[in-house]
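Worked problem 6 (solution included).
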Amino acid sequence: MVFTIIVHLDVKSEHIDKVKAKLIEANRVYAKDKGTIDWFVSQDVNDPTKFAIVERYEQRSDLQTHINNPYYKEFGRYVKPLLTKSIELHSVEELDTSKEVEVPPRTWSDEAEQ
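Solution. The predicted structure is:
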């Protein structure tokens, strides 16, 4: 099962370009790590101070390769002082969408329809 980390960064407005460049550099480093499927970086279309990283690994244990990469500490030391708040992390396992699924019929009422 694919293990995914979703990271949210809120950047001080005067440091947007620095963080953007560091994220692009990080993508080029981490995408090469063993067990990494994808390492995407994105910027919010409505608020340029908000960035997201989606890290996809073959399995949960591959995250350790990411953490053990010498670049990991360098990235943190560079980026953390440029943020308005702590990095927000969400760890998820992707759902298996390869199998057929039966959606149960709706049996509840929607208060918004009333």
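Discussion: Helices lie at 16-30, 62-68, 70-79.
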